[in-house]
């Protein structure tokens, strides 16, 4: 698996070259959000707003009203929890094209609970006019800015930074509202997002060796959530569905899937793997394991749905793992 | 549009401006008497400021909005972005024209009356004020005549206006951006985030007008939270600040013309929420939403008639 480095740093500069009305706004975390180089390339299009996210959000609305395309850069947690009212009344209600590029989503930060956006998808799914993308790999980083631009309205991106694996072919870019099928199968449907897709790929391989037929899909558009492929997969996999996400178990991908199951009157068991609540400050791998958003927990969920004990061990699941996200 | 062009005057005498201020007070007093309550004190405190802004201070084009009130045009969204924006009543945006953001959107009735008094909307449109299903809501939003944005959550509009001023400065527009604030709103942290940023970006095309009427929902401002000294506060955050008597048209207009090279300008207007409707003084400082009981009605009716209003 290839690891790409600082993909957004490059993409933001290339993207801005195509669209002169694009500007970057930063609340003192630009250098932690891969736009330090952007600042040196486009100093006149980089607005430092100080540690004042509320003003940054409403100010961006003013710029957007005048035809600029602001891309707000800070940690995810500060782009929804701290400024929800500004996000809703200044940007979402008037449906302005402001893009919230949120870094270190979920537990991809060692910064502890204050830095972890564990319920951002849940909160923002309830905001009208809002589009939500959850980035899963380097190829999606490369595609997200164009898709966000095309939405022509408010977009929230759960962005990944620094060392990020390339899970999907570079020539197959992310598509809006279109899940990526990574494995075809009929027994169990696994829907994964963000950093959990890598875990799910690992688990799927091991499950297949045990004779479980797994349909695995990676989901990156979390709102709107109306991909007909997902609905078809839900219909196909009668034994059940497992969702796994880098998010609180309530409100995110798992909840969106539950709504789809209920709305279409499907009788499917659903196991939602997500964070059980607030976590604490530690490394990503430690937190994923401790709070159960890893491959092993996915296997356990499949065991529960199939009623089978599967001979899958932690060793089997461990291939190449890398440690990143060390900097707060 | 031809209609409103004809109706939009460009030069007003001081007496004419005062007459507009008086008509704002009279009409909102009329609404308060008819309906039992209105944001009357806001009209009393800001009438001269608003009348002066529309006639002597701001450079606005002729209204491009519908002459009459229109039904609520729907919530903005991907399929509804071409609804009639309230800002059209300030004219079609142009590089040399000013823009006006109203943060204290409880002043909606004041704005509607000012639009009517300056020929920007039909006086008959006021009959749709606060009527279900129409665009003349009691608390304005994007689609309400005279409103650029949805301002009900305090502290945000000043930042939106500043972002607009920032965009216009980068574009080298010569028109300015005005933003009307209440003084209670100065307790919001975001207001000060905005002032420091507007100073940092040297927004000399940005003018904030504060109706410092000294009252907020729970009473007198000084009994709720300390916001003074305002001039020193604004200046320490990097703005140019002038104080004036908000009921004195000449003083206000002069204050708005204060030079402010390289800085945003803040015009703090000292006003009273009972100016022109003296019995309100008895209710001060509880004047956020004035209710007029049956018992009080004759007193206010008399004032209303003295102002030239018809018998209600």
Using DSSP, what is the number of strands of chain B? 9
CATH architecture annotation name of the largest domain in chain A: 3-Layer(aba) Sandwich
Q: Round the Cα radius of gyration of chain B to an integer and report it.
A: 18 Å
Q: Give the end-to-end Cα distance of chain A, rounded to a whole number of Å.
A: 25 Å
With strands numbered from the N-terminus, the spatial order across the biggest sheet of chain B is: 2-3-4-8-7
Summing up helix and strand content along with how strands pair, one would put the structural category of chain B as alpha/beta
CATH fold assignment of the largest domain in chain A: Rossmann fold
Low-confidence parts of chain B: 1-6
Number of helices of chain A: 13
Q: Judging from the principal axes of the Cα atoms, what is the shape of chain B?
A: globular
The first-to-last residue Cα distance of chain B is: 33 Å
CATH superfamily of chain B: Thiamin diphosphate (ThDP)-binding fold, Pyr/PP domains
From the alpha carbons, calculate the radius of gyration of chain A and give it in angstroms. 19 Å
Low-confidence segments of chain A, given as residue ranges, are: 322-328
What can you tell me about this protein's structure?
The complex is a heterodimer of chains A (328) and B (312). With 328 residues, chain A is α/β, with parallel strands linked by helices. Chain A has two domains: 2-166, 3-Layer(aba) Sandwich (Rossmann fold), CATH 3.40.50; 180-306, 3-Layer(aba) Sandwich (Rossmann fold), CATH 3.40.50. Chain A contains 13 helices and 14 strands. Mean pLDDT of chain A is 95; it is low at 322-328. Chain B has a single domain (14-72, 83-306), classed as Rossmann fold. Chain B has helices at 2-7, 14-35, 40-57, 108-117, 157-170, 189-200, 230-236, 249-256, 297-306; strands spanning 37-38, 99-102, 177-182, 206-212, 215-216, 219-220, 240-245, 265-270, 290-291. Classes of the chains: A alpha/beta (328), B alpha/beta (312). At the A-B interface, helix 3 and helix 5 of A face helix 5 and helix 6 of B.
